[in-house]
């Protein structure tokens, strides 16, 4: 028994080494056994790949390169921006530029400059083609007439310079391109008319002409076109715009768009980049124009005052005769004039800040905060706050125009605008308060000076008042003219914030990506069969090879591998001695010498989980293998319910084991000679009604005692242990037990449950025989079969 244990452990260790290798080998065997799946999958995937790459239209990407100019220092200070000399800087972040470029306002202005409203296609066999810039005909529409939108209008050239126009739709939108307004639905339309090229089609749902650009069009080609509203086109192209930086931290960006027609992509990107530059320049010029308008309004007021002051001074001089003012009078008059001039300029700034304060309160999202041309040069806080607020408001309007109903970024912008507005209002209140203090100080100084001037002669005093009024209006008028000239120069010198580095060009094909498609097709070609194999493996509930067997019970060794046999013989040892299956039984016989050392006669019980797993076949051939080796062997058919041995040897009318167990026959009466020398057979005999009770009688013990005295090897073909309990009784008389597992036949769960019960009952010295093993399930069978086939030759 000690030798048995040692050998048992050795076998397990050897098996563990083999099992540790190779799940990869198992996967490879599974792939080889299912090679037809790959043979089907690979051609199909490659064919689909070819058809997809061949008959899918190329989608191109066009790109225009733009440089965002940095805020370089200029000779004009930031405070002067409020004065009209410079304007608020545009947002330069990539996110903001994307919002601006994809805003409906900007995209629609670009569409307005293009001829995209008429979308012409040609019908192909497998696909349709965009005929923009290469259409053999053109369409002239009446922009004042309602046209049917987004409905295909089919054009079929006919012989004799004719054309057939067909329209079929249930209901479509009518649109006037002149006023860009929709005019309700068209209702059901079923229209078809054959006419000359260039004839006018005048219907309630369209007014247009189809004009041929060639002498004669081919009748076999059919075309169709759509009328597209500019709003629809703007929304469509907004989704195709992408903005990306040249590299992180770079001021150069790429503006890209995709489409099927290269010329259409280029035209759109050029128009978009042009509008993109124009809109920032126009905004600058608009602010400068408002500044000029403010100055012009002030000039008109001051000019009237200056004219009145001039006439008053001339009238005074004509009406009064007096000598030149004294030096004291002149000095006092000059001082009072400077104070009054400064006071008026302070009042002008105060008016600006109060107006700005009211605009912020009453119109928080307005864009006309830069109306006045005056600011505190000594304090740039207001300038910076106004610039910040204008930038946020502009960004808010462009984001709002993006059209999204729910936009978290819009909520964040509104919060920032509110904070910026409060900061500006706080700064304005403080500045207005400081101006009021300064204004009161100057008024006090003027009052003191006025007391001194009251001591002058009355005539001189009146003259000085009239002259001072004239000089004050003249100084203010001169100041405003200077500011007007400077602002006009600034407006004329305004340039776009950004610059186009490279005009639009096609940068490549987006789809189909042939390289990527090839990789995906090859991956799919192999992934599909593998997925099917894995699924089959997952759903499989049968034991197929030693890996499956080891996963269910690793403590019991596999001592025999019986290859798949498709021949008609039952005793292959006798009929086909040179076959690989015969060699497998010889190998099993050799291993049993170590598993069941022969101190006495060897008693070997052979069982299985269920019927049909080959235990009788294995019992017969193992018995024959022992017999031809010169050992006296007896094969006992203890499967009384299904007497397979009786059928094989045709002993239906002879006494058998069942007769012995009921006391009708002796051992000698039921012993028959086998086909092989040294082999005896005890068939099952007639099927009894109570096989379990018969096997449990004392006759069974006496039989084994007699057989062990007469034979060297006793092979017991017992009932399936997974079905009936008879085998458990017979195992008490056995020195070792062989459990037959049939590949692709034995159920995993039934097997697992049966083995667990055996082990829990303390039955040991068990060995598995893996029967009906496919030739690709293990290397040994392949080489033995090849070896014996070569010997046959």
Largest sheet: 8 strands, mixed
Q: What's the CATH first level of the largest domain? A: Alpha Beta
Ranges where pLDDT stays below 50 over 5 or more residues in a row are 1-22, 71-92, 375-379, 778-793
Shape, please?
elongated
By CATH, the topology of the largest domain is Rossmann fold
CATH homologous superfamily descriptor of the largest domain = P-loop containing nucleotide triphosphate hydrolases
Based on DSSP secondary structure assignment, what is the total number of beta strands? 24
Rounded to an integer in angstroms, the radius of gyration calculated over CA atoms is 53 Å
The CATH architecture term of the largest domain is 3-Layer(aba) Sandwich
Strand order of the largest sheet: 17-24-23-18-22-19-21-20
Strand content: 15-25%
End-to-end gap: 44 Å
What share of the residues lie within helices?
40-55%
Structural class: alpha+beta
Could you report the average pLDDT, rounded to the nearest whole number?
81
Helical segment tally? 25
User: What count of domains describes the coordinates?
Assistant: 3
Characterize the structure shown.
- It is a single chain.
- The protein is an alpha+beta fold.
- It has three domains: 92-268, no CATH class; 278-501, no CATH class; 558-738 and 748-792, 3-Layer(aba) Sandwich (Rossmann fold), CATH 3.40.50.300.
- The protein is built from 25 helices and 24 strands.
- The protein has an eight-stranded mixed beta sheet, sandwiched between helices. Strands 3-2-13-6-7-10 form a six-stranded antiparallel beta sheet, with no helix packed on it.
- β20 (672-673) and β21 (679-682) form a beta hairpin.
- It is elongated.
- The two termini are 44 Å apart.
- The relative contact order is 0.10.
- Mean pLDDT is 81; it is low at 1-22, 71-92, 375-379 and 778-793.
